[in-house]
Amino acid sequence: MTPEAVLFDLDGTLVDTALDFFSVVNSLREEEGLPALADSTIREQVSNGGVALACLTWEIDRSHPDIQDYRQRLLDRYENTVGDKAQLFKGFSELLNKLEQGSVPWGIVTNKPRLYTDLLLERMPLACKFVVCPEDVHRTKPAPDSLLLCASMMEVQPSSCWYVGDHIRDIEAARAAGMTSIAALFGYIEESEDPQAWHADHYVNDPHEITALLSGKA
């Protein structure tokens, strides 16, 4: 069934933002005398947020008493580079064009703070009319609040929306919101993770497969 709207997670789903984090993480590690990490190691953690990246960068645990200070140091460095190299995953230009040509609204629902989301979209550039960030709701994903808010902004029923994400919290949020869930297997998924255990409604290996779903060819 053709959706009334399609919502996307940002990091690791719609946009390959890991490209901006490689230099951030490794420049901070270099300052501490730590060896550089492989791009693939950094990529796995991007969807897990700033705390996870801080733990990776400084080799500390989430329980570290100064974890929020480390997280902010990383984000301050990221603020200077956000959008420098980030780009849409291959296939999304065609998909977004198809949605717009079919008058199907699309939006971004992310746990990425508003400051960095706005900077990213401005610098890429990527124009999106509907963007929901964690500051907009009381409960972030995996709670459904941000997805429901976006559907309300679009004036569509949640049950008629698709939500695409690369993390279990995305699938849980979609399920809780009553939306069709689509797991992006091309995203930032840890090697130890089993996406099949998320029980998404659909699994896609690249954005072209979402286009196929829209066309009823999947």
Lay out the secondary structure:
Layout: E1 5-8, E2 15-16, H1 18-31, H2 39-45, H3 50-58, H4 67-81, E3 87-88, H5 92-101, E4 106-109, H6 114-123, E5 130-132, H7 145-154, E6 161-165, H8 168-177, E7 180-184, E8 202-204, H9 207-215
Mind explaining what this structure looks like?
- By secondary structure, the protein is α/β, with parallel strands linked by helices.
- The protein has helices spanning about 20-30, 40-45, 50-60, 65-80, 90-100, 115-125, 145-155, 170-175, 205-215; strands spanning about 5-10, 15, 85-90, 105-110, 130, 160-165, 180-185, 200-205.
- It folds into 2 domains: about 5-15 and about 85-215, HAD superfamily/HAD-like (Rossmann fold, 3-Layer(aba) Sandwich); about 20-80.
- The strands form 2 sheets. It has a 6-stranded parallel beta sheet, sandwiched between helices. Strands 2-3 form a two-stranded antiparallel ribbon.
- Helix 6 links the parallel strand 4 (about 105-110) and strand 5 (about 130).
- The radius of gyration is 17 Å and the shape is globular.
- It starts with a strand and ends with a helix.
Instruction: Give the distance, in angstroms, between the N- and C-terminal Cα atoms.
Output: 12 Å
Shape: globular
- The largest beta-sheet arranges its strands as 5-4-1-6-7-8
The mean pLDDT is 96
- The CATH topology name of the largest domain reads Rossmann fold
Which structural class do you get from the secondary structure elements?
alpha/beta
How many E strands? 8
**Main beta sheet: strand number and arrangement?**
6 strands, parallel
CATH architecture assignment name of the largest domain? 3-Layer(aba) Sandwich
In CATH, what is the homologous superfamily of the largest domain? Answer: HAD superfamily/HAD-like
Which stretches are low in confidence, meaning pLDDT under 50 for 5 or more residues running?
Answer: none
CATH class category label of the largest domain: Alpha Beta
Number of helical regions: 9
Percent helix range: 40-55%
How many domains is the backbone divided into? 2
Order of helices and strands: EEHHHHEHEHEHEHEEH
What is the CA-atom radius of gyration, in angstroms?
17 Å
- Amount of beta strand: 5-15%
